[in-house]
């Protein structure tokens, strides 16, 4: 099915199941510990051996020798695979550095060997007996030092004459902001169980994008994609870190081939942070010029980031192209080559650090203008793409989010003078920021079966990374087929199922449910045909199929045999004609201890406009999870770079700090009642990344309002108040 005209009324609009607060259907499996995560597929590989990955101990250079003798002789060892004996390996589309390094080493902890043994302990012990000699080369590890050598990258854009408009602007801001390298730090480690049957490989793994992962694994191993089955039914968080194939899946497959046994590999957390990807650090220069009444006349956002050779930038300027009006604009991206572990997508990639900078800049500019920061944003709202005014937004309720947020939060009680509100030894302040993230739609397929028992089974390779995909897909199928939720079975995360959008970029919810919608439209037609009903007149509700004065129980429709339908949703030009985006507003109250600089978040509110909310419970969970992550980015999260040896020093959760319950106050979330018929038949958009965009700056702005100290270098740790 192709979506190329705005959605009219359709069965989803009945909202009998869709849109209702629904607890996740996979919840009981998860809280009873019976949902199998990647490392827990004991049943499928009962005789599995254990693999332990050896990582490079230098960041750049060459392996000059590897002595495997003692490791091979160690108890329980079944096989050792290095680049020297792995055979030719291809490179997948989605990884930058090789997933098995050697003899060249591209980054610290790049995989250089796997040891397979009868037990995990034996594999780990044998790995410790491998001695590696290196010829270390000079590497580039410091973004600030590499900044001047950074080359032009995309996106870049100019509109009007920024330099002239900026020079002429009566009120100006010129400020530089920095964000550090971030780690996804998801709960479930990277893990894979690999098993070969002849030339057929099955991997049980933890991956957000089954089709990408399967294809890249096949490319890496040099085998046809049909020879690889990838299974990932439950995922303990990904945040973009599991969008792509990572080394543990490749190493498990190579280890299993060499050992002629299924092999299980889990990356220890202290290994994964330098072995896998991270969100790259940024340096961002923002220059704003405005008239005294607060109209932006000159807008420039430039960003610098670094990555491995052949990698890409952290696109921190993306949101700035569309968020505020302003006739003269300059958008510039610069990319430096660094030899740190490879950078890649982490939740709201580009948008999150970009908004962390932009929304402080907006706060600073409002102060220079003597304007309320909410009003300053409202004055500069745009209903069209500022770079291409003929392009409209499909929906844009930023102003409504800002106004409603200000009202609900009690923004009028804020004292605009920084450092002026005290509560005992605490300095208290309020801050806010806009939230803004684009909506993407990816082709997504599904198969739906109506069984002779009346059960509706959905199969798609869509993943659930903790977001609630199982539940919204079940809601969609229940709504379409007119049955209760408990009549629907959802099977996800298997490359034997139709290719879906996968989970990422907040495209998963709308895309995958639209694919299920398409398959259900076909199933309804097939059911009507089976019953001899006119498909265009048949209605599906209360477990009945009705047409004219005839009514048949859906369960009876398939008595003569299961009815199966498969389709996918593809998107036409509407996405190009209309800018599809999601909007919101974040409000934060923070308190800073006058003596110690300890910072506590007291209250947070987010108002979001993101199309139809398919499930208010799981959507709220996405928002509060993102807001929590935003507090982490504002106050704690930072990978510390060792600029001599080129690795992240705090490569575990003891040193890489993320918020815990005690750090997070009550979080309030409000969704505007919105449907977006330009987006899909679901009229829904993504929410998972919107919730993160702007939070960091709202915290920073609240801290400034509390203390009068403007910190432009994240995270805002207490030493920076001095
Ligand atoms: Mo997201 S960073 O596309 O999982």
Automatic annotation (TrEMBL):
It comes from the Bacteria. GO terms for molecular function: iron ion binding; oxidoreductase activity. Residues 32-138 form the Aldehyde oxidase/xanthine dehydrogenase a/b hammerhead domain. Transmembrane segments: none annotated. This is Xanthine dehydrogenase. It comes from Sphingomonas oleivorans. The lineage of its organism: Bacteria, Pseudomonadati, Pseudomonadota, Alphaproteobacteria, Sphingomonadales.
């Amino acid at each position: 099915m192709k979506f190329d005209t705005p959605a009219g009324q359709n069965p989803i609009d009945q909202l009998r199941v869709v849109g209702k607060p629904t607890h996740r259907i996979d919840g009981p499996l998860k809280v009873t510990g019976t949902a199998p995560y990647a490392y827990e597929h004991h049943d499928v590989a009962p005789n599995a051996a254990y693999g332990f990955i050896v990582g490079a101990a230098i960041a750049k250079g060459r392996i000059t020798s590897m002595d495997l003798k003692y490791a091979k002789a160690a108890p329980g060892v079944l096989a050792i695979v290095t680049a020297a004996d792995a055979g030719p390996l291809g490179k997948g589309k989605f990884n930058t550095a090789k997933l098995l390094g050697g003899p060249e080493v591209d980054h610290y902890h790049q995989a250089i060997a796997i040891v397979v043994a009868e037990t995990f302990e034996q594999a780990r012990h044998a790995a410790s007996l491998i001695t590696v000699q290196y010829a270390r080369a000079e590497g580039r590890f410091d973004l600030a030092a590499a900044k001047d050598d950074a080359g032009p990258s995309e996106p870049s854009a100019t509109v009007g004459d920024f330099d002239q408009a900026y020079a002429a602007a009566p009120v100006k801001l010129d400020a530089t902001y920095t964000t550090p390298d971030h780690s996804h730090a998801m709960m479930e480690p990277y893990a894979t169980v690999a098993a070969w049957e002849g030339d057929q490989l099955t991997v049980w793994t933890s991956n957000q994008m089954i089709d990408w992962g399967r294809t890249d694994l096949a490319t890496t191993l040099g085998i046809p994609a049909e020879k690889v089955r990838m299974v990932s039914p439950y995922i303990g968080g990904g945040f973009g870190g599991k969008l792509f194939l990572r080394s543990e899946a490749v190493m498990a497959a190579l280890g299993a081939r060499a050992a002629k046994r299924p092999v299980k590999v889990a990356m220890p957390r202290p290994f994964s942070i330098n072995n896998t990807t991270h969100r790259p650090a940024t340096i961002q220069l923002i220059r704003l010029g405005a008239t005294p009444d607060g109209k932006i006349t000159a807008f420039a956002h430039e960003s610098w980031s670094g990555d491995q050779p052949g990698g890409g930038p952290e696109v921190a300027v993306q949101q700035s192209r569309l968020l505020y009006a302003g006739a003269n604009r300059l958008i510039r991206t610069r990319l430096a080559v660094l030899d740190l572990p490879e950078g890649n997508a982490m939740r709201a990639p580009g948008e999150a650090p970009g908004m962390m900078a932009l929304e402080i800049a907006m706060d600073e500019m409002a102060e220079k203008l003597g304007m309320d920061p909410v009003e300053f944003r409202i004055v500069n709202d745009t209903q069209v793409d500022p770079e291409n005014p003929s392009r409209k937004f499909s929906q844009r309720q930023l102003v409504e989010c800002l106004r409603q947020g200000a009202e609900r939060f009690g923004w009028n009680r804020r004292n605009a003078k920084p450092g002026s509100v005290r509560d005992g030894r605490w300095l208290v302040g309020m801050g806010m920021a806009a939230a803004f993230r684009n909506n993407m739609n990816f082709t997504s397929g599904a198969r739906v079966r109506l069984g002779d028992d009346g059960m509706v089974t959905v199969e798609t390779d869509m993943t659930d990374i903790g977001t609630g995909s199982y539940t919204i897909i079940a809601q969609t199928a229940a709504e379409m087929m007119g049955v209760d939720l408990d009549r629907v079975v959802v099977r996800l995360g298997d490359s034997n199922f139709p290719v879906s959008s996968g989970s990422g970029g907040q495209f998963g919810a709308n895309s995958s449910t639209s694919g299920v919608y398409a398959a259900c439209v076909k199933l309804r037609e097939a059911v009507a045909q089976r019953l001899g009903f006119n498909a265009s007149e048949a209605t599906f509700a209360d477990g009945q199929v009705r047409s004219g004065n005839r009514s048949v129980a859906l369960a009876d429709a398939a008595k003569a045999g299961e009815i199966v339908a498969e389709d996918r949703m593809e998107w036409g030009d509407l996405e190009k004609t209309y800018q599809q985006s999601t909007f919101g507003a974040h409000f934060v109250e923070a308190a800073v201890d006058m003596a110690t600089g300890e910072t506590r978040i007291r209250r947070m509110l987010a108002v979001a406009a993101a199309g139809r909310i398919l499930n208010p419970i799981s959507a709220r969970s996405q928002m509060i999870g993102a807001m929590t992550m935003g507090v982490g980015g504002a106050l704690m999260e930072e990978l510390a770079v060792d600029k001599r040896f080129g690795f992240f020093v705090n490569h575990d959760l003891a040193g890489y700090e993320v918020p815990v319950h005690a750090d997070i106050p009550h979080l309030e979330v409000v969704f505007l009642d919105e449907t977006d018929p330009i987006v899909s038949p679901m009229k829904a958009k993504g929410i998972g990344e919107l919730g993160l965009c702007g939070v960091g700056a709202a915290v920073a702005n609240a801290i400034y309002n509390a203390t009068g100290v403007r910190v432009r270098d994240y995270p805002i740790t207490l030493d920076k108040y001095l």
